[in-house]
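Dear Dr. L.,

I hope this message finds you well. Following up on our conversation about the binding site, I have prepared a predicted three-dimensional model of the protein together with zinc ion. For your records, I am including the exact sequence and ligand specification that went into the calculation, followed by the structure tokens. Please feel free to forward this to your student if that is useful.
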Amino acid sequence: MRSQSKLISQAHPTLNLVHPTPEVFIWNTIIRSHFRHGDRSLPSVSAPLSAFLRMRFHGVNPDFYTFPFILQLFQIPSYLHLGKSIHAQIHHFGFVRNRFCQTSLINMYSNCGDMYLARKLFDEINLPDLPSWNSILTGYIRIGLVDNARKVFDEMPERNVVSWSSMIDGYSRCGDCEKALQLFNSMEGSKPNEFTMSSVLSACGQLGNLDKGMNAHDYIKENDMENNVIVATGLIDMYVKCGSIDRARDVFNKLGPTEDVMAWTAFISGLAIHGCSHECLEQFNNMLVREVRPNSVTFVGLLSACAHGGLVSEGEAYFDRMMNEFGISPRIQHYGCMVDLYSRAGLVRRAWDLVLSMPIEPDVLIWGSLLSGSRTHFDVEMCEKAIGKLIELEPMNSGAYVLLSNVYVKAGRWKDVKIVRDLMKAKGVKKVQGYSMVDIDGVRHRFVVGDESHPEIRDVYVKLDEIMMKLKMEGYVGDVKEVLLDLDEEEGKEMALWRHSEKLAVAFAILKTGEGESIRVMKNLRICSDCHVAMKMISRVFNREIIVRDCNRFHRFCNGICSCNDFW
Ligand code: ZN
Ligand code: ZN
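The resulting structure of the complex is given below.
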């Protein structure tokens, strides 16, 4: 009976005929057998549950082995009501103080996000075991209560790798990446595993801290985890976010022919945001050759590569294949890519038509794409429509107002510029201050527009002036139009452009690093067109590779050319 689960399943109907009331252990075996057939991550609910109900129908009373099996079925919020009814049965049959049942209930409530009940049961247990502590810890993290989780973590009488990994993951997920790395460095008593490392890598990627990311990579190499596909995917993602697509490519190639869709997707998306559109499409074909089935995220990467590369007909074809060949219905991100694709290519009307025909309510990103598309192609009327929607959705976001006023500036509609400014003032909308960061010898330096606070700012300005004079000799002319809104009129417009935070960061890096070294800058806003021109020239005149991560994408300036082909 216990030997082969498959046999049990086959025997199941016969059992009903032979023994109308088989014993509970047989039923437990039957229930358990159904688990092994389903998908491992999410067992099918109906088969084991119907076995349980049949058992009850035959008048067999469950025991404390039965309930933990059944509770395993209800680990997502939409099944919470079923989990609760099993909880009632546990009461009814008097197993509420049974350790197995208690632990399973805590786990179930915690996975379903009901931390009030999970915690209540947990507090009722005398000397809870480590899995119960971990359940509570991960439960808090799942619903975003990281501080509560930390409290639990600090109170735990012992911790294992699950506790450490979950806590590090919690910090990394909520964007508190410094804390994630601190905790990783203080990890003791357990050895990091692939899950720990993937959270650590995610933290490094979010920080855009290449040095720390490379340290983590060293640790991974020393501990022979590089070929683990979860870790490799984390590495690819980290290098992509830290601006080093070459290192990401190395990791991917070292991984060898993989069948893991996550690794492929990380690489494909990375190529897309780094502007390697053609390589991205090529890799997608390689993926299909290997018979790896793309998922919805893979298509987000692929379509955004088409958008960034201006590949309209390819993008349309992939969008079509995604739906018809792979049966993936488009989500808001896919529509976003398509709108972006059309907007960037100047097909603003087509973008608009797509938005109107979408079965999903367009979000801020979609209106934002339409706005910047209309803006690049001077369609003032479309801009106004898009901004109306944006302000409706996010009345306090300054980005849209700034873009709109720039459109009016370019169109020479000064009265409207003033109206937008007054509107911002009246509504109390504050402009998000732009800043750029650069890491030198492991120390992060932050510059704002017209910075006065950096300790070496005088030297930076001297260096920047020197750089800009050199560029002028090479034919640089400031693109003053975009900055008008940022400044008081009397200030020298071109001088003000010189003081943009990304220029300061690059000047500082040139001052502090050796000839020919790459420079990596992170900016919180979109890079302006003047800085874009300047970066291209600096990369050529000073023979430096400059990588700027702005809020949208990466720009890799090399020998006077940017990887985005001036299309961003
Ligand atoms: Zn700028
Ligand atoms: Zn660029």
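In brief: The two ends are 65 Å apart (CA to CA).

With kind regards,
A. P.
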